[in-house]
Amino acid sequence: MRQKEEDMKRLKFINRMELSFDKPVSGHAYALRCIPRTDSAQKIETLLSRVTPSGISKAVKDGFGNLVYTGSCAVPHTAFGYEIKGTALVDQNRREREACHPMYRYATLLTGWGPCLESFYETHKTAGRAAFEMACSFMQAIYDEFVYAPGATDIHTAAETAMAQGKGVCQDYTHIFLALCRKAGIPARYVAGMMIGEGATHAWAELYLDGVWRGFDPTHNRFVDDVYIKLAHGRDYRDCILERGTFWGNAVQKQKIYVSVEDIT
After folding, report:
1. What is the pLDDT of residues 119-171, one digit of tens each?
2. Kind of pairing, strands 167-168 and 147-148?
3. What is the pTM of this model?
4. Helices (H) and strands (E) in the chain, counts
5. Is residue 47 predicted with pLDDT exceeding 60?
6. CA distance 106 to 113
7. CA dihedral angle for residue 140, residue 145, residue 149, residue 155, rounded to 10 degrees
8. Residue 192 to residue 238: CA distance in whole angstroms
9. Mind listing the pLDDT tens digit for each residue in 199-244?
10. 99: Cβ–Cβ under 8 A, 6 or more apart, which residues?
């Protein structure tokens, strides 16, 4: 039996991004995947959103079902930002069965195969065991042997490159985990979101097991539970970019990000 909504964990969240330019820019077009989604395991209870400077904007869904806030600002400006805040009700046990698109079975540019991944896979695969046990083996091994090192990689780093150097950030942990699971025949997708205690956005994976998408966080070697808030999912990081934009102008930009998730159950 499902829990009543009043029994679900209630999380208060703030997601703020500020972009400053040393010279005015104009013709600024943007696409933002920064608004939490409602699904069977997560209900957005209250939501306030603000984008500055204001301009022409609309909310659409992309091909993965993620909510995308698109817009443009024609007037010159030296700052751009957004603030998304509200409350979410979360209960991972409420996840419903759904179909799985075949695309989550195949490698992408960022999760492609190579000799370092092959060696790691052969060392840690668990032949003859269930998909769940195989995934747990991979998650434990990545956590034990990979080093969390901010600045060691960037948003373009592929899983094979990160594995070769043995260090990276949550995006790299997730890409490596996706590559291994897909190699083992387990459909897997990338998730961008927030969680208690991070102070920034976070990345993890969802695996399709027995008709249900289940969350695995290889960075922390734990299953995704009710302290996580999902923003977007896709094949890899490129499908889940939270802020993307273009503008006219020759300016240096600096970015500040603030993310907070708090349990207020």
Report:
1. 999 999 987 779 999 999 999 999 999 999 999 999 999 999 999 999 999 99
2. parallel
3. 0.94
4. 4, 14
5. yes
6. 10
7. -70
8. 11
9. 899 999 999 999 999 999 999 999 999 999 999 999 999 999 999 9
10. none
Q: Of 62, 106, 99, which Cα lies nearest the Cα of 212?
A: 99
Torsion of CA 71, 74, 75, 78, to 10 degrees: 60
Residues 6 or more apart from 131 whose CB is under 8 A from it? 184, 185, 186, 207, 209
Closest CA to 216 of 107, 138, 164, 149: 138
56-61 and 67-73 beta bridge pairing: antiparallel
**Token pair in block for residue 163:** 């594995």
Distance, in Å, from the CA atom of 238 to the CA atom of 22, rounded to the nearest integer, reads 28
DSSP assignment of 181-236, as one string?
HHHTT--EEEEEEEETT-SS-EEEEEEEETTEEEEEETTTTEE--TTEEEEEEESS
Tokens standing for residue 204: 């993890």
φ, ψ of residue 166 in degrees (nearest 5): 75, 20
| Amino acid sitting at position 94 | R
What token pair was written down for 79?
């700052």
